Write the structure tokens for this entry.
Amino acid sequence: MNVLVINCGSSSLKYQLIDSESEKVLAKGLCERIGIEGSCITHTPEGGEKTTTESPMPTHTEAVKLVIEKLTDEKVGVIGSLSEIGAVGHRVVHGGEKFAEAVVIDDAVIKAIEECNDLAPLHNPANLIGIHSCQELMPGVPMVAVFDTAFHQTMPKKAYLYGIPYEYYEKYKIRRYGFHGTSHDYVSKRAAEILGKKREDLKIIVCHLGNGTSISAVDHGKCVDTSMGLTPLEGLIMGTRSGDLDPAIVSFLAAKEGLDAAGVIDVLNKKSGVLGLSGGVSSDFRDVGAAADSGNDVAATALDAYAYRVAKYIGSYAAGMNGVDVIAFTAGVGENDFKVRAMVSSYLGYLGAAIDDEKNKIRGEETELSTADSRVKLLLVPTNEELAIARETVRLV
Ligand code: AMP
């Protein structure tokens, strides 16, 4: 069956058409600037050239229409007609406490996703627009929602509650939810497979180090803790996000800079992380690394702070699980940046974890990075959220 995987943002739509039997990506692409001037679609068929076409997309419905046109196009298409799409898998960011796993989409599911909009006001409405557009243009095709938060729903209360009055959890559902769940689930499963073991027999820490960064503790197959919280702002230092800080900084900074709370949160989301810490060099680790290599001390300190925070989280999750068997690195930085992996690993000697510097030179391929006598396995496991969404979709339809 061919599964169309859709990941809708407020002004963008990413897609992949995956053949579920061979698990091959038949085509992939991106619609950008939806609803604004200059919208365009970039489409790449398997083994073919990437093409970018400008085309007006006032709404996501026109974007989905264009995706279908590209997929069925005589020249750049990969299927004969719409009837060759067997199902659609939608990435949905926030499933709140309502969804602990992926579900087939019906009216009740749409209503329940709407009820989570409050928790992800930038993401969930865009995800819903993508669902509605696909339903309009592909009536009768089964659709599945795969939630970023679902994998983390197994966390115990002690891990997901904040130290604030309990009534706020009861009234407003303020708690840790966690994100990147599809990636943490996929990578922890794959890590066990690579080692020829069952995930249910292992204590795994997954380090999803990308532009957004999160870590999770997967204890015998279940997520027991994760670094992102009510929103994706908590936890590690990221590309542009601050991660953890003293909450009193919000009012302190608001008073000093003449901002309101939303203004400070905007700074913490968009101008912080390695971008802010490096004095504005970049949110991209390649640029920050290059600046550090050429003697920029502030950029070097930003990377030090980043790696130190990752190491601290690994330590806390090893403590929480009373040990760790496997630490897996994934996402843009985790898969490609051997220096960051080496910096993080330099803190792990107390766990008996040792990285092999030669093996660690690898980029983007499944690899065991640890030395033969390392007590903890260090792995590079490229994530594949689209494939995980396609698999869930097939499983459910
Ligand atoms: P992601 O959010 O997983 O797509 O990761 C994107 C981030 O990965 C980029 O912002 C870069 O900082 C980082 N990245 C990608 N390739 C490399 C590389 N070769 N070396 C270092 N960092 C990289």
About this structure: The mean pLDDT is 96. Residues 210-212, 239, 284-286, 331-333, 336-337 surround adenosine monophosphate (CB under 6 Å).
